[in-house]
Amino acid sequence: MDAHMETVISLDDVEAAAERIKDRVRRTPCLRTRFIREPVHPNLMLKLECLQVTGSFKARGANNAVLTLDDAALGRGVVTASSGNHGVAVAYAAHASEAKAVVYLPERADRAKVGQLERWGAEGVITGDVWDDANAAALARAATDGLTYIHPFADPAVIAGQGTVAREMLKQSPGIDVILVGIGGGGLISGVASAAKAIKPEVRVIGVEPSGAPTLKTSLESRTVVSLDEITSAALPLALKQSAALNLEIIGRRVDDVVLVDDSEMQAAARWLFREMSLATDLAGAAALAALQSGKVSVPDQQTVCAIVCGAGTDGIS
Fold first, then answer.
1. Model pTM?
2. Domains of the chain from N-terminus onward
3. Alpha carbon distances (Å) from 128 to 119, 136, 238
4. What band does 221 get if pLDDT is binned at 50, 70 and 90?
5. Which pLDDT does position 3 carry in this prediction?
6. Is the pLDDT of residue 49 over 70?
């Protein structure tokens, strides 16, 4: 990591984002898991971002980014790359701001999410095998057509928007001791850790990545941004070959640990969420819970742990 680089997402940034997006996103439940047959932890809570508008936390960051654009940037239209959730969120945010949106997605993208973003009026373009390929095409389109590019995880406005998840959950449940967060590119955990540590410095923030796409864990161990040779996880929202220096720097300072779970552990967690909580989540949405359920993270019984259920879907229960 570059010792000369220090980016601070302050609590003021997160508070400003919360005010900016308040009329575009839902205040999602932070629910204690009770009245169930197979408890995972005696003091487990779930932050249900799978119930967020467009189906994931991404609506927070996308709307904050779009609402910070000036009229000229918005008038040119926006372009982004996504495995699905961020693309739908940008499509929704652009629609709400009466702007054009173009979303590049990899071949592996969920076609239901492609249809969803197109219903919000965005242009969906399928290209490449993974997000990194789609992102290169989105950047080229931005340069060619003059569109305003919105990065899904390495944009301070996006990160501040995602930080509103932690602000909201700690207002709902101030006694939370440990927060579990799925990691793809690192936008959610960068925002959550920045906000949570500012509000409650003693809270532990633990990231969870697929063992088939250990992008951030590998980069943290190498102290530089690493590009993986291959991706083997089916948890597409978490399956990126490379993160970004901005996220690596924030995570390196603010996150207490990063653990790995495999696809079968995410599948088991998704099925638990459906069976016990009647929640349909994608594999990525179940990753945080999988870390606790599988024993990759241990939390004392007297402490309160909250897993962010970050996205809705059916691939986790199919």
1. 0.95
2. 11-56+155-309 (3.40.50.1100), 59-149 (3.40.50.1100)
3. 23, 9, 17
4. very high
5. 42
6. yes
Q: Do 297 and 318 contact (CB within 8 A), yes or no?
A: no
pLDDT class of 226 with cuts at 50, 70, 90: very high
How many C-beta atoms lie closer than 10 Å to residue 200's C-beta? 16
Alpha-carbon span 109 to 200, nearest angstrom: 37
3-state secondary structure of 69: coil
User: Which tokens sit at 35?
Assistant: 């009245």
If residue 314 lies in a helix (H) or strand (E), which one and from where to where?
Answer: none
Return d(Cα 232, Cα 119) in angstroms, integer: 30
Nearest to 315 by CA among 250, 269, 277: 269
Instruction: State residue 307's pLDDT score.
Output: 98
**Quick check: 57 and 25 in contact, CB under 8 A?**
no
Cα 79 to Cα 110: distance, rounded to the nearest angstrom: 19
Q: What's the chain's Rg over C-alpha atoms?
A: 18
Residue 15 CB-density burial (10 A; 0-12 exposed, 13-18 middle, 19+ buried): middle
For 64, the token pair is 């904050």
